[in-house]
Amino acid sequence: MAHTNRSVLVVGLGRFGSSIATTLDEQGQDVLAVDISGEMVNRWSPYFPTAQADMTDVIALEQLGVSDFGTAVVAIGDSIEASVITAGNLLDAGINDLWAKSVSKEHARILQRIGVRHIINAEMDAGKRVGHLVSGNYLDYIELEGVHSVVKIHTPAHVAGYSIGDVKVLDRYGVTVVGLKAPGRDFEYGSKDLVMHRNDELVIMGTQDQIDRFIRG
Ligand code: ADP
């Protein structure tokens, strides 16, 4: 099958790359996953299209026709050198929609400097998320790109019994209440007349500072 601008190239078939390739394939996306290791390629080739190649090698890239792909993900974490060289090669091949996994702040900084648009700090992001959950401040937490997060919390004591409009949540705290779930009831979307009760779970969105101020009151 010819690859197109909608095809995705995944480089590296460790835990991270293989789960990305699996998800893309399950969603019906055209995907090709490449690994330098024959063992990894054999392991995954029953599930989605694979190829064995060293992606730091420009000739191997040409042979795979990587410039036909619209998107690529560099999922190499075992060698920062291989990750950075591969990312550079893919940028040189004209792939602008490039994603790369970083294993440290320094790695992320180099990837950013060479022009990788999307950098995924998988372990650091997961650690941050778990930290928030373990601390018990948030019931759930998703960090959006940039500084915004969507967080699930119990209604802060200082707003319990008041409506979103009474509290002027957005004006006063810069926080949007997406909605709330009262025990035993369906989720309700945020509106100015919606009253936040003590045991409700609120889903709110804002920057970390705004969210923390809203929780503290
Ligand atoms: P994870 O931490 O997600 O399990 P790893 O970082 O351990 O993943 O795996 C990285 C994968 O990238 C390995 O399977 C390795 O063989 C592959 N890899 C490393 N260097 C290259 C390269 N130059 N070209 C292609 N694949 C590579």
Automatic annotation (TrEMBL):
Matches recorded under Gene3D superfamilies: NAD(P)-binding Rossmann-like Domain, Regulator of K+ conductance, C-terminal domain
Pfam family, one: TrkA_N
Organism: Bifidobacterium tsurumiense
PANTHER family: KTR SYSTEM POTASSIUM UPTAKE PROTEIN C, POTASSIUM CHANNEL PROTEIN 2-RELATED-RELATED
Protein name per Swiss-Prot or TrEMBL: K transporter, NAD-binding component
Molecular function terms from GO: monoatomic cation transmembrane transporter activity
Highest taxon, organism lineage: Bacteria
GO biological process: potassium ion transport
PROSITE patterns: RCK_C
RCK C-terminal domain segment(s): 136-217
